[in-house]
Amino acid sequence: MFFKPLFVVLAVTACVVYSQAPPPPPFLVGAPASTVNEFNQLLATSGGLTDPQIDAAVDAWVAKQSDDIKSKHEQFKQEKNKQQEAAKAAHAAALANFSPEAKDADAKLSAIADNLSLTAQDKSQQIQQLLGSLPANVRQEIEASMQG
Ligand SMILES: *[C@@H]1O[C@H](CO)[C@@H](O)[C@H](O)[C@H]1NC(C)=O
To answer: Out of 3, 119, 121, 137, which could bridge 47 as a Cys pair, Cβ 3.0 to 4.6 Å?
Structure first.
């Protein structure tokens, strides 16, 4: 949806796989159901877009909403930046304890997650494929590091 570090990408991927109706993002809490639906529709059709394209589509959509939503979205973006910084720090800390195999896999996963020319669908597919190709112990090492 927005530029995300790997941990967030994986969490969102899991969310997409396991949940039918995602809760509305914080900037749409309290918004009319029709507005939330419109936003979900936008996201549902954005699988073929790259992250910068999705960001642009979301920004364009938000620009047409109420002042309340616009200002909440601005706050949301700032909050998200902070969380990304925190996630990067957590990632760096986890990386320090990884086995060489997990480090190698992590570098490949991060390259996919950070690739701005991949669409959301490609990203999710390539990440699942890579995770699926890892030996069980390496995958467990990476997954365990993501549980907070
Ligand atoms: C991004 O993905 C494309 C398509 O898989 C690939 O050709 C390109 O080399 C990747 N770029 C980086 C920086 O990894």
So the answer is: 121
* 41 CA → ligand 1 middle, Å: 28
Residue type, 97: N
* Neighbouring-strand partners of residue 119: 50
Whole-prediction pTM: 0.76
CA–CA dist 91, 5 (Å, integer): 9
99 neighbors 138 (Cβ within 8 angstroms): yes
Q: What's the whole-number average pLDDT of the chain?
A: 87
- How many whole angstroms from 117 Cα to the centroid of ligand 1? 7
Residue ranges lining ligand 1, Cβ < 6 Å: 111, 115, 117-118
Using the mean position of ligand 1's atoms as its centre, give its distance from the Cα of residue 3 in Å.
16
